[in-house]
Task: inverse folding
């Protein structure tokens, strides 16, 4: 009996213990579900779900005429959720009914595998119930548009399981054209150029999307949990695609011919400071050229183009007159234990100051500066500071170099500092700073701040507009300015001028200065005889519209290195083409155009028919020529013949679009058209040679 009672007691105790433990477990379960349920559920979601950033669509960079210079192109990664409810309902009937036709369409669209291979891939994914199977990556927008209309896909994401993930890639449609200035928008490297300077405006504001992670480390977007991104703003630059193309090609041609190391060409609008073109080319390991660095804002010894600042100082301080005479010592002069050399020897006779400048005599500039500023060098340095040559221009580009201008008391100051600075040595400034100074002379003494962005747009509306900024109202007196212009014009037209031969047959007048500087080659110093060739000037000289600088660093021991022979031809080719395609350049500003001074060109029979229909009097000198031009002459109009050769680019200015297209395309040229009306300008110079299928841009107005 006692044994039985003992056993029962133990059973009861065990039962009670189990009951109590069960109660505790159930109570804890209830507590976790009802009291802590929200916390644990959120913790679980945080382990399997997260927000990812959605990049905003980056803004587009445009040229001044609205051509795209840098834009974002959407590419799509295509995924399939084989576990989508709509895809698997009714035992997957929707999937099986569309499988063959979908596979056929995919094979035809992508062409990377057959329809049978696509069918096999889709079946495998369906059987494994892959939730985020990557079908294709980097699909273009055009192909994505076609994909959306394919069987099954067109039924939408929930029924088809097809998911498209958008990625934007940055594209420069013009390739090499101003590539470094426009810049690069790169995912894993620092941006450069305008892409970097205006990054905060271009990139917009990122959005967020909730995603759920699944097996294999992939994730699926959660519908309804997305914060839209705000697209970036658009940038309107001052660049002119036509001028940029001319500058780039002219620079490239000369650099290839001379096997140069690198070079830059900048074109600035005189009145405003707008940069219309900025080309930068550097030699690559494979002997090709590319826009690798922005040489236009890198500081170097400018050489003889700096002599303009020396002349300005001397003339403004009334130390000299242009008619004063100076002995150039035959092109060699010793001062303070060092020797100044001219690039070419001269007759051992006296020259005027103006002639010394036109000859680009280092001896002449060094002797003048040394004799007038050696005892009080701060007078000379103060002029350089007033011209802002000791500070960056402030152009809207990150990375502009800080110039180096020596001053008394500085570590590198010596007895030869003044004479060497006088002809552009012992000083470091960028080509853009030199251009800004010459532009001020062209702009009647007003120095303009160079800039590259004229407006910021948001959704097609102008949000901010950049106005021209004046840095200095008058860089010097009117008398000094007139004398400087006289000297610069003399360089290009007087027999003594270093650029006289270059421009002697030009149909317009140029004012400018050549430069040839011996530059150091790292630790080897000047032993490799590397020269930097420069030319800077403005045109047309009397009513300038553009200022341009060309700076080219030649290869060691180059046979041709003088500024007039290397940089000058680039300037001339650019100026020739701009003067040819822009009729306003040859028309002095402020002169009213008489409407009677018309100018038309086209098919001779059509022009005659128009004149006769409206009973308009004219003198017909076209004879039986197929093409002709009608223009005002005296009190009447003259119809004259236009000779067209299939071996040269025809002159289509004044023609209607129909005639221009007929003539150019008939000569196997590709024609790009901008604007409406008659042809106002053309990118290829009339009479120049052309290649089959070469593109010519015609501007209508």
Result:
């Amino acid at each position: 009996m006692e044994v039985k009672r003992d056993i029962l007691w133990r059973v009861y105790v065990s039962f009670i213990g189990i009951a109590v433990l069960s109660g505790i477990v159930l109570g804890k379960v209830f507590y976790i579900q009802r009291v802590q349920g929200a916390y644990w559920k959120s913790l679980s979601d945080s382990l399997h779900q997260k927000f990812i950033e959605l990049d905003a669509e980056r803004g587009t960079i445009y040229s001044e005429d609205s051509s795209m210079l840098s834009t974002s192109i959407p590419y799509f990664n295509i995924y399939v959720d084989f576990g989508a409810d709509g895809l698997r309902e009714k035992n997957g009937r929707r999937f099986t009914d569309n499988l063959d036709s979908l596979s056929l369409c995919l094979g035809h669209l992508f062409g990377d595998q057959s329809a049978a291979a696509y069918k096999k891939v889709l079946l495998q994914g369906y059987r494994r119930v892959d939730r985020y199977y990557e079908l294709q990556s980097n699909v273009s927008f055009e192909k994505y548009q076609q994909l959306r209309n394919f069987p099954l896909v067109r039924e939408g994401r929930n029924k088809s399981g097809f998911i498209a993930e958008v990625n934007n890639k940055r594209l420069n449609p013009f390739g090499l054209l101003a590539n470094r200035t426009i810049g690069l928008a790169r995912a894993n490297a620092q941006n450069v150029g305008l892409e970097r300077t205006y990054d905060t405006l271009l990139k917009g504001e990122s959005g967020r999307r909730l995603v759920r992670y699944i097996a294999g480390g992939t994730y699926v977007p959660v519908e309804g949990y997305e914060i839209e991104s705000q697209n970036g703003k658009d940038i309107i630059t001052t660049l002119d695609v036509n001028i940029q193309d001319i500058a780039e090609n002219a620079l490239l041609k000369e650099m290839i011919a001379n096997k140069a190391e690198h070079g830059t060409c900048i074109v600035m609008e005189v009145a405003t400071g707008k940069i219309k073109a900025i080309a930068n080319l550097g030699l690559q390991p494979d002997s090709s050229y590319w826009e690798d660095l922005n040489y236009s804002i890198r500081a170097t010894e400018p050489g003889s183009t700096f002599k303009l600042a020396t002349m300005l100082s001397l003339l403004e301080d009334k130390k000299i007159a242009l008619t004063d005479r100076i002995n150039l010592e035959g092109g060699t002069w010793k001062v303070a234990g060092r020797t100044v050399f001219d690039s070419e020897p001269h007759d051992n006779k006296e020259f005027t100051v103006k002639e010394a400048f036109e000859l680009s005599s280092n001896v002449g500039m060094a002797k003048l500066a040394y004799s007038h500023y050696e005892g009080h060098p701060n007078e000379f340095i103060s002029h350089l500071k007033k011209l802002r040559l000791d500070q960056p221009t402030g152009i809207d580009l990150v990375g502009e170099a800080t110039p180096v201008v020596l001053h008394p008391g500085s570590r590198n100051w010596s007895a030869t500092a003044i004479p060497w600075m006088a002809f552009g040595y012992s000083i470091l400034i960028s080509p853009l700073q030199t251009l800004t100074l010459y532009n001020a002379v062209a702009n009647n003494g007003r120095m303009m701040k160079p800039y590259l962005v004229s407006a910021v747009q948001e959704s097609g509306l102008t949000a901010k507009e950049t106005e021209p900024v004046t840095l200095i109202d008058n860089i010097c007196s009117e008398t000094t300015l007139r004398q400087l212009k006289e000297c610069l014009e003399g360089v290009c037209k007087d027999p003594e001028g270093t650029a006289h031969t270059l421009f002697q047959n030009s149909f317009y007048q140029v004012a400018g200065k050549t430069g040839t500087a011996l530059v150091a080659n790292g630790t080897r110093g000047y032993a490799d005889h590397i020269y930097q060739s420069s030319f800077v000037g403005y045109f047309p000289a009397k009513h300038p519209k553009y200022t341009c600088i060309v700076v080219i660093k030649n290869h060691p021991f180059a046979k041709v290195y003088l500024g007039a022979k290397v940089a000058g031809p680039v300037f001339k080719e650019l100026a020739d083409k701009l003067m040819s395609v822009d009729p306003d350049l040859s028309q002095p500003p402020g002169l009213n155009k008489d409407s009677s001074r018309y100018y038309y060109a086209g098919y001779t029979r059509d022009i005659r028919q128009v004149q006769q229909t409206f009973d308009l009097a004219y003198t017909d000198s076209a004879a039986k020529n197929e093409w002709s031009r009608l223009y005002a002459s005296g009190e009447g109009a003259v119809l004259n013949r236009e000779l067209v050769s299939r071996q040269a680019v025809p002159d289509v200015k004044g023609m209607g679009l129909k005639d221009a297209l007929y003539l150019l395309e008939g000569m196997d040229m590709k024609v790009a058209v901008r604007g409406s009306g008659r042809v106002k300008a053309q990118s290829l110079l009339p009479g120049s040679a052309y290649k089959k299928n070469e593109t010519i841009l015609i501007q209508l107005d």
Observations:
- The CA atoms of residues 386 and 475 lie 8 Å apart.
- The mean pLDDT is 85.
- The chain has 21 helices and 31 strands.
